[in-house]
């Protein structure tokens, strides 16, 4: 092999083996290493098998220092690209987090500005700006409802229309605000419960059961709400679903939903300490609804088999709830809570007089 590659026979003078590139520098460094290993005087330094030699012959270019240099360059280039990719990724993450922090700060600033606004229009404008920035966050929705719409405990038709227009508005992602919020499950379910209660009890003062049905159904199937809120939403949702059919007769002459069933569900809703489970405002809304239904539908309840004594006992129970659950002399209670309690006691007295006088 040495003779074939170099044209020099090592068996002839000068009887010495030189590296093949001594004779021809253009020859491969890899091939030179293979032949040099084959011609070592010490047998242990030569190839120990034909397979070993065959492998090197098939990959002789890889033994070339220039090949190794190219491979090292490729490796360095690849590592450099990887490092740059990591650096740019970190910069992108940092930039995104910085941008998010700025947006979140503006979001909170708008909400705080809304609280100190002089007029309802200014207050709504700030909440609207907050929602434009982060339509998938629930805080602005909840405070819009609590601090603006329900500050007088009445959700008006105009406010309802405002809220609906916000929920169907499209964000920069192409999704509606409601779709954006729906991806934040806990926030969406909390808003659903809040809206369900607001529509059920507060819409135009006496509530709109039909409008509450959608939101109560979402809350009733929630996975993040308190179990007692879920149960309450389920009971109220059931009332809302059949409210429109209450007392209406089918073709056979039977009522779809009886006032007896309605009464049973109303009693279940008011049975617990709602102030402890939810809050004083929610409790007062629930009790106000019960008192109003007794006042407005006492005769229908009696016709359905609910005795006058049962109706009176329910009014007494509500009065006991007020005594035990809400301390109007406490500094922790707001003037609005005290006013609602006083109004509710007046309503209870009126309903009791109606029951006692028999003016049903």
Keyword list:
0% strand; mainly alpha; rod-shaped; single chain; 360 residues
Describe this structure in words.
This protein has helices spanning 2-6, 20-23, 29-38, 50-58, 65-115, 120-133, 139-149, 157-167, 177-182, 185-202, 209-220, 227-243, 259-270, 274-277, 280-303, 308-325, 335-357. It contains 17 helices and no strands. The N and C termini lie far apart (122 Å). The chain is mostly helical. The longest helix has 51 residues, at 65-115. The chain is rod-shaped and about 140 Å long. Among the domains are: 2-63, no CATH class; 246-360, no CATH class. The mean pLDDT is 85.
How much helix is in the residues?
Answer: 55-70%
Name the poorly predicted regions.
none
Number of helices: 17
Radius of gyration: 41 Å
- Quick check: average pLDDT? 85
The share of residues in extended strands comes to: under 5%
The tally of beta strands, per DSSP, is 0
Query: Distance between the terminal alpha carbons, to the nearest Å?
Result: 122 Å
Coarse shape? rod-shaped
Structural class: mainly alpha
Order of helices and strands: HHHHHHHHHHHHHHHHH
Can I get a quick summary?
Helix content is 69%, strand content 0%.
Write the layout of secondary structure elements.
Layout: H1 2-6, H2 20-23, H3 29-38, H4 50-58, H5 65-115, H6 120-133, H7 139-149, H8 157-167, H9 177-182, H10 185-202, H11 209-220, H12 227-243, H13 259-270, H14 274-277, H15 280-303, H16 308-325, H17 335-357
Helix pairs in contact: 5-6, 6-7, 7-10, 10-11, 10-12, 11-12, 12-13, 13-15, 15-16, 15-17, 16-17
């Amino acid at each position: 092999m040495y003779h074939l590659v170099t044209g020099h026979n090592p068996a002839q003078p000068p009887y010495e083996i030189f590296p093949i590139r001594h004779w021809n520098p253009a020859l491969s460094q890899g091939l030179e290493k293979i032949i040099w290993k084959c011609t070592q005087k010490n047998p242990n330094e030569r190839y120990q098998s034909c397979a070993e030699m065959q492998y090197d012959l098939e990959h002789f270019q890889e033994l070339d220092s220039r090949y190794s240099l190219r491979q090292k360059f490729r490796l360095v280039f690849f590592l450099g690209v990887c490092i740059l990719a990591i650096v740019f990724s970190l910069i992108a993450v940092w930039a995104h987090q910085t941008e998010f922090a700025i947006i979140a700060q503006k979001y909170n600033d708008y909400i705080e500005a809304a609280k100190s606004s002089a007029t309802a229009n200014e207050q709504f404008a700030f909440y609207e700006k907050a929602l434009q920035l982060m339509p998938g966050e629930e805080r602005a929705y909840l405070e819009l409802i609590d601090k603006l719409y329900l500050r007088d405990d009445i959700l008006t038709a105009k406010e309802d229309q405002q809220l609906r227009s916000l929920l169907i508005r499209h964000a920069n992602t192409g999704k509606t605000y409601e779709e954006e919020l729906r991806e934040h499950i806990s926030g969406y379910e909390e808003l659903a419960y809040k809206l369900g209660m607001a529509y059920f009890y507060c819409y135009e003062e006496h509530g709109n059961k039909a409008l509450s049905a959608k939101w109560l159904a979402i809350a009733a199937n929630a996975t993040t709400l308190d179990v007692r809120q879920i149960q309450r939403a389920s009971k109220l949702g059931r009332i809302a679903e059949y409210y429109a059919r209450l007392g209406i007769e089918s073709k056979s002459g039977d009522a779809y939903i009886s006032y007896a069933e309605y009464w049973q569900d109303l009693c279940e809703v008011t049975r617990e300490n709602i102030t402890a489970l939810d809050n004083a405002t929610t409790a007062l809304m629930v009790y106000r609804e019960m008192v109003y239904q007794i006042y407005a539908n006492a005769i229908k309840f009696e016709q359905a088999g609910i005795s006058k004594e049962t109706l009176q006992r329910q009014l007494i129970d509500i009065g006991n709830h007020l005594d035990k659950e809400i301390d109007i002399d406490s500094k922790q209670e707001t003037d609005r809570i005290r006013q609602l309690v006083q109004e509710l006691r007046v309503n209870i007295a009126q309903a009791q007089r109606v029951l006692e006088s028999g003016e049903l």
